[in-house]
Structures are given as C-alpha cells and as structure tokens.
Amino acid sequence: MAQSVLEQLLEAIDTETGRNLLADLRDPERRSPQLYNAIGKYLERHKFTISRLQPDAGLLGELAAALDEVPDLTDEESTRH
C-alpha cells in the first residue's frame, strides 16, 4: 500500500513539473537556455520511466509539440547568463 501512495505522489509531482515547464515554455518572457535544458531532461527521463509510471500522456505530447514549435536560440541568446 505504501508503495502505491509513493507512486501516486511521484506521479503528481511529475505531472505538476510538466505543467509548469509547459506554462513557462508558452511564456516568451520565461524562455531561457535553462528552461530548454530542463525540458530536454524531463522528456529524456520519460523515455525510461513512462512504462513504470503513468504521467499525463497528453501533457507529454503537448510539451514535446510546443518544444518543436519554439525557434532555436541564436548564438547570442544561448550565451546570455
């Protein structure tokens, strides 16, 4: 039983993280190299864990699609701190 509760907690945290990443990606003021890096890590992590945990599949699809629509950073943008 405790394992089930832990999995539900982890799924809830993961889903909320994904929603926040997606909200930040949709806001031009919040886009940064760090955000793109965090999104990349989030999506990469799910290649391995999606079979064990069941994150919101719609959220992952939306996040990946939104990331594809965002133009690449210029050299100047990627070197800003």
The assigned structural class equals: mainly alpha
Mean pLDDT equals 80
What's the multimeric state? single chain
Major sheet description: none
H and E order: HHHH
- C-alpha geometry: elongated
Percent helix range = over 70%
Alpha-carbon distance between the termini?
Answer: 46 Å
Q: Which percent range describes the beta-strand content?
A: under 5%
Which spans have pLDDT < 50 for at least 5 consecutive residues? none
As for the number of domains, it is 1
What is the tally of beta strands? Answer: 0
- Our count of helices gives 4
Evaluate the radius of gyration.
14 Å
Search tags:
81 residues
Report on the structure:
With 81 residues, this protein is mainly α. It has one domain (2-72). The chain is built from 4 helices and no strands. The chain has helices at 2-26, 33-49, 57-69, 75-79. It is elongated, with a radius of gyration of 14 Å. The mean pLDDT is 80.
Give me a quick take on this structure.
With 81 residues, the chain is mostly helical. Helices cover 74% and strands 0% of the residues.
